[in-house]
Design goal:
Helix 4 (about 65-85) crosses helix 10 (about 175-200) and helix 5 packs antiparallel against helix 13. It is built from 14 helices and no strands. The protein has one domain. It is an all-alpha fold.
Length: about 300
């Protein structure tokens, strides 16, 4: 569990910057271009890792259709929805709505993947979600003042993430973490490229500039390449529900990066929210102790 928690925290620190980078990039390009850049830079960094490790994959044995579906539901579609939502919402609001992913993961698992729900999981998720509100100081009424279409777009992204976690656990466990990360990002790059060709092919001519490369390195190479190695590790070694708990920590990480990079103040609500969220993550990951069984000689 120590390695799982370390990976969870590390992933949250990386993904905490994603909403900030997206907001910066939206000032110069559309959501589809951001998805392409994020996918492309992530694919490149993982390809370099594969070449350094000299790991050869038997391409004929790969479940290409299932990889494509996971790439669509875990990368291309939710990233497009997140970027689109941030044209209407603040990055903080988007990250808070993103924290509902564990709830959708549990619900999708229960209705479509025959997952059983423990009482502790529900309690932990509710506690963690309460911590998000303590952390941000946002009241329920504030959600109604936001743009409804932005909220629906962001909620669609969380649904897609929840579905992708279960699909990965069910269909891609035979692949290594590196293979899953690389091929889903590769498919996401291909998908987003053809979307741009259909929607706005002229935008490809000004896709990469000196101003955007830095943000794409942070969003793509780290936020997609390295981060997805950690994410698929959490899904396979832990569970889809445990991996989705990273969304509780991402808003904390985003606020910490804001404090470090933008000199924003840390308030008491932030500290209290951090404590409550960690309690929620801990409760959700608790597993019931198995009763010892006496062995009987044949």
């Amino acid at each position: 569990m120590g390695r799982l928690y370390s990976a969870l925290i590390g992933l949250s620190l990386i993904w905490g910057t994603s909403f900030l980078f997206i907001k910066i990039l939206l000032s110069s390009m559309g959501p589809e271009n951001i998805v392409l850049g994020r996918s492309l830079f992530g694919t490149i960094i993982l390809l370099l890792i594969i070449l350094l490790k000299k790991k050869i994959t038997n391409l004929k044995k790969l479940p290409w259709t299932k990889i494509f579906v996971v790439a669509l539901t875990n990368n291309a579609l939710p990233w497009f929805l997140i970027c689109s939502s941030e044209t209407k919402l603040t990055s903080s609001m988007a990250s808070i709505i993103n924290a509902t992913t564990p709830i959708w993961t549990l619900i999708i698992g229960f209705f479509f993947f025959s997952s059983s729900l423990r009482k502790s999981q529900w309690i932990g998720i509710l506690v963690g979600f309460m911590g998000i509100f303590v952390l941000s100081g946002i009241k329920l009424g504030d959600f109604y003042s936001g743009h409804i279409s932005g909220i629906l777009l962001m909620t669609g992204a969380t649904l897609s993430y929840g579905l992708a976690s279960h699909l990965t656990k069910k269909h891609l466990t035979q692949l290594s973490v590196l293979e899953t990360s690389f091929f889903t990002l590769l498919f996401s790059t291909i998908i987003s490229f053809f979307v741009i060709l259909f929607m706005n092919p002229r935008s490809l001519s000004s896709f990469l500039t000196i101003e955007t490369v830095g943000s794409f390195i942070g969003l793509g190479a780290l936020g997609s390449g390295v981060a997805y190695l950690l994410f698929y590790y959490l899904v396979k070694k832990g569970s889809p529900e445990f991996a989705s708990l990273v969304t509780y920590l991402v808003p904390i990480s985003a606020l910490l990066w804001g404090t470090i990079l933008l000199n924003e103040e840390i308030h008491l609500s932030m500290v209290l929210g951090l404590i409550v969220i960690f309690i929620g993550v801990y409760i959700s990951s608790l597993k019931p102790k198995e009763k010892s069984k006496e062995s009987h000689a044949a």
